[in-house]
Write a structure and sequence with these properties.
The chain has a 3-stranded antiparallel sheet, with no helix packed on it. The chain has a 3-stranded antiparallel sheet with strand order 14-13-16, with no helix packed on it. Strands 1-11 form a two-stranded antiparallel sheet. About 0% of the residues lie in helices and about 30% in strands. A hairpin with a 2-residue loop joins β7 and β8. It is an all-beta fold. The termini are far apart. It has 2 domains: about 90 residues, Sandwich (Tumour Suppressor Smad4), CATH 2.60.200.60; about 55 residues.
């Protein structure tokens, strides 16, 4: 494991003068596993405060995050921690290759309707793209043409077709 479990309120500490204790408080608005995140200066139940061996790279509410192994002012050590939140000390993540852009293309479909807004079925049409590609067909019962797909955005021209 490249990091340490994040410390939280109620996690166990071992205090030389007071034996087993718990972190008494943490962040008012950052929670790990439903428990307040522990930070530099947060108290333990014995009166100690978290003071050392804290994260140098992760801050919670402007305070360094505490982890398993962080120290308190009584010489206590945090021995508990989150089972799901790990705080590391470096940016040692895996290298990621950039994802090439995906061109999904463009498509359009026309709906032909009359002056009353009713669909016009069985209408022979010709659609011509700006690049010169021609699509011919007849509208369906809902007045829809076939779907025209292009690789790039193009102007489409729709007109009646006597050859369909």
């Amino acid at each position: 494991m490249s990091g340490k479990p994040a410390a939280r309120a109620t996690d166990a500490t071992n205090c030389p003068g007071h034996a087993a204790q718990k972190i008494a408080a943490g962040s008012p608005d950052v929670f790990f596993d439903g428990l307040p995140a522990a930070r530099l200066g947060d108290p333990a139940s014995c009166g100690s405060t978290i003071s050392g061996n804290i994260s140098a790279t992760v801050f919670i509410n402007g305070k360094n995050a505490a982890t398993q192994g962080s120290l308190g002012t009584h010489g206590d050590v945090i021995v508990g921690g989150s089972g799901t939140v790990i705080i590391g000390q470096s940016g040692g993540g895996a290298a990621v290759s950039p994802v090439p852009p995906i061109n999904l293309g463009f498509d359009e479909q026309f709906t032909l309707s009359d002056a009353d807004g009713e669909p016009v079925p069985d209408f022979a049409y010709k659609i011509t793209t700006a690049s010169g590609k021609i699509f011919r067909g007849v509208t369906n019962e809902r007045g829809l043409t076939q779907r025209v797909s292009t690789r790039a955005t193009e102007l489409l021209h729709l007109e009646p077709d006597d050859l369909a």
